[in-house]
Amino acid sequence: MSKQELEVIGQGADGCCDGLASAPLDDERVAQLAKVFKALGDPVRLRLLSMIASREGGEVCVCEMTPAFDLSQPTISHHLKLLRQAGLIDCERRGTWVYYWVLPGALDQLAAFLTMPQTAGATA
């Protein structure tokens, strides 16, 4: 399986910890984040990411995820590929099966981006 070059959101030199409210986004950052949100906007991909992220041990075989869906294995693999391209997960082939895990910090960086800073006197 070939490795694709992925830049995990927030790991470039362009402000790793800048949140949504810190400054307007530039075109490159908008395109990068749009790819992530588009990947998360599909119910199948969101469920796949949840299955991987919640898995004890941190990784899961594609053979364990496929039965949870009424979709073919190639369709599941396509959805997983889009999550990889968005920089949310990675994988490794072991024999005939492929194992997936969430990239370290990817979800934390996304959460930090979406978090609004608390201001003095703000009410909940």
From TrEMBL:
PROSITE patterns: HTH_ARSR_2. The keyword Cytoplasm does not apply. Keywords: DNA-binding, Transcription, Transcription regulation. CDD domains: HTH_ARSR. The keyword Transcription regulation applies. GO terms for molecular function: DNA binding; DNA-binding transcription factor activity. Residues 25-122 form the HTH arsR-type domain. InterPro entries: ArsR-like_HTH, HTH_ArsR_DNA-bd_dom, HTH_MetalResp_TranReg, WH-like_DNA-bd_sf, WH_DNA-bd_sf. PANTHER family: ARSENICAL RESISTANCE OPERON REPRESSOR, TRANSCRIPTIONAL REGULATOR, ARSR FAMILY. This is ArsR family transcriptional regulator. It comes from Streptomyces viridochromogenes (strain DSM 40736 / JCM 4977 / BCRC 1201 / Tue 494).
